Amino acid sequence: MKVLHVNEHLAHKGGVETYLFGALPRLRERGVVPVVAYGDGDPSLHEPARHVPALGTAGFRAEKQARTQMARVLREETPDLVHIHNVQNVGALQASLAHGPTVITTHDYRWVCPANNFFHERPQAVCERTCGLGCFATTLAKRCVTPRPQYAAYFYRRAKWGIEHADRFARVIAPSSGARAKYEQSGFQDADMAVLPYFCELAPAETPRPLPDPPTITYLGRIAANKGHEYFIEALGKLPSSVQGRMVGSISADVADTLRVLASKHGCAERLDLHGWASRDEVVDLLDRTSVFVFPSLWPETLGIVGLEALSRGVPVVASDLGGVPEWCREDSTGYRVPPKDGAAIAARVERLLADDDRLRAFGARGISLIKERFRPAQHIDRLLRLYQHAQTSHQSASSSRA
Q1: 52 in helix, strand or coil?
Q2: Residue 396 has what pLDDT?
Q3: Residue 138 resides in a domain
Q4: 90 and 160: one domain?
Q5: Over the chain, what is the mean pLDDT?
Q6: Domain housing 238
Q7: Domain-embedded: residue 403
Q8: pTM attached to this predicted model
Q9: 126 in a structural domain
Q10: Is residue 92 over pLDDT 90?
Q11: Would you say 336 and 366 are in contact if contact means Cβ atoms under 8 Å apart?
Q12: What is the phi/psi pair of residue 211, to 5°?
């Protein structure tokens, strides 16, 4: 089976790309020929790869370009199935659906939400509305969709197109039950949706690591408005002076200055260490020196791969109770879930964990077991291949019924 994976980036960018670079070689090992169509990036990272420049460009003109460019790639590659990941415009999807069976993974909410993430930046709140013209008024008051009119109009068109054409996909894959529910509530009721969580690339530890000394909480991820990093710093400020904090991610010199100012405000600047993006080996080392992993996201994450990585090393988690987080943050088992935007609640749960070494070890052991049971690569690829087979069969049945 040849599968054409379509994604804007062929580069080590974020969670979607982390997933792809982990899945592609494993699919090849199972007899699949994975080809990548990408908008920008480095083709040497995966071969074969086909450059489709318009995938990374939003806009009505780019939509036509993407449709034309994708149609050419599809004619030349003749894949048995197309797997859509994240792209900027619908042209690639139109060409793919015209070609044959197409599945799509809902890595974010771009196909039902013009802002991609159901997040209002100004009040820092989750949006509960469905896509409609009211989105434009909402973004003026609460800041969600870009303020640039030409892009806002196109992102609205993209979400409306996704809702209207949901039933044309042979399979829609959501990374969590929470993500599936959000899509179904937003207009994908007639889509053939399946839940397939991401897998954890890090091999799970055999046993939880020795408890770190001094006790340390860690944040790992982008520094962005919807990630809740400020509540991590607020929580650190409320914890005893013996507790250290570590932030790892998209931390430039300017961002570091901003974070230090915020830490000073909360009285914890001397206890906060800042690091840029880390390699896989460095992430393992950082997690092994972490007492509690904090995931303070403010938007309904479709899953949260970094949470899986923490559990794989036996690190308990305290996470915002949103989106796909309940899939891996099991209350009073692998960690605690707290309301978003609540630094005090984060601190209280972290302190509860740090006060009991036996609880820390027990939560860590259950986290490792959960990763082994539900989030291993082989399990994921087995299910993905079955979804591919289902997509081909359903497409053939639909084609026969139309004939």
Answers
A1: coil
A2: 81
A3: yes
A4: yes
A5: 95
A6: 216-374
A7: no
A8: 0.94
A9: yes
A10: yes
A11: no
A12: -65, 130
